[in-house]
Write the structure tokens for this entry.
Amino acid sequence: MPLHSIRRHILAVALPLALIGCDATTAAGQDSASVTSAPDMSIWASEILADGRSRFLFDAWDGPDLPIWAYVPEGVDRKTAPIMFLLHGAKRDPRRYLEEWVQFADEDGFIIIAPEFAKSSFPDSLSYNLGNVWAKGGKTVNPEGVWSFSAIEPVFDQVVASIGSNQKSYTLYGHSAGSQFVHRFLVAKPKARVGRYLAANAGWYTMPDREITFPYGLGELGVTDDEVRAMLAKDVVVLLGDQDTNTKHDSLRRTPEAMAQGPHRFARGLSYFNSAKALAEEMGTEFNWSYRIIPGVAHSNGGIAQGAHDLVE
């Protein structure tokens, strides 16, 4: 069954009660305190993709209007500059996330696009980092057009058209709840034009294991061998701060299924990568995933940016 047809078959999948009862904080985990405060709104231009910081509303999709926060380094070649989508955490703070990447966008010459999945429209983990695939209650599937996953590709189209870019693909980066969005987007949108997936410090994972029931694994989604091979062949980098090891963090998910992935985020990230590697070896298929450990970094988007900005392409 093609992954893009999940919406027609997933009605038979019962989401665990632990998922339904969780709010965004419990399910996703939160960032550490801000490394950089969000800048004053007066420096954000309303012109779409002006040089420097800008903000605009995106409405060319079936879901609610999305604020898009963007940064275009001054003087960058808009036709050739790499484009990075930046997915925020459970605190829904894209301005702060973007600001922690600005220095590296300037240094490396890439454009940042940071959609805001505000709680007013995407109030919990089910509607944001689990893709808004299910309606409230977890038993009814939403139309694919309103999945949070479904916003990314049309935003990319608008960005490319607005700046006259020649880019055919983009880097998809997320931290914490944003990392959950990224690694599930990999499964839900297999035909997306993502050149590289960067998944940083997720609180828990949908493991690449068809023996584990979704959302903790791929079980009962009808994922075929060919679809698994295609997923394992993608350019995926799991990013982990080696100090993201707090086992008592108030937002760390502690369901039995999550605890089976490891006692903390660092261990769970390694489990996710190792599970994928073992599956590729078992299937004898191409494996293009990698991981990078950022030393001295805990649960920090800014810390990950310092150690991983060279991966944007």
About this structure: Residues 1-30, 32-36 have pLDDT under 50 and may be disordered. The beta strands are 52-58, 66-72, 83-87, 111-115, 170-175, 194-200, 236-241, 290-294.
